[in-house]
Amino acid sequence: MEVSEHSLVINAIQPLDPARRCYRMIGGVLVERNIKEVLPAVQRNKEGIEEVIARLNEALEKKKKEIADFEAKYKIRIRKGDSDMKDEEGSKKDGGSQGVLVGPAGSAE
């Protein structure tokens, strides 16, 4: 979301006059600058965020591979959670004794 917000800001201020003043929030303080100073800073921030996201994605893929290798090495199979298992057992029991036979409708004896 932050990358898209930075992109929106960059696209909005890029075509404007570099001498035009703008405001930027830095550490909770609104600072008056001009576009010439703000645009490179916003672009650097966007690039930094993209780098962090790329590193986190690489680390995630590495951990997924490690988990898969660990599961294969020790023959680990993931089972459903206890609540899912209880729900399935309950539905199996109910399914076997599900129907109740009743006489024809409207017959009063």
TrEMBL record:
Coiled-coil ranges per UniProt: 46-73
Keywords: Chaperone, Coiled coil
CDD domains listed in its UniProt record: Prefoldin_2
An example Gene Ontology CC term for this record: prefoldin complex
Residue ranges with Basic and acidic residues bias: 81-95
SUPFAM superfamilies reported for this sequence: Prefoldin
Name under which the protein is recorded: Prefoldin subunit 2
Higher taxonomy: Eukaryota, Viridiplantae, Streptophyta, Embryophyta, Tracheophyta
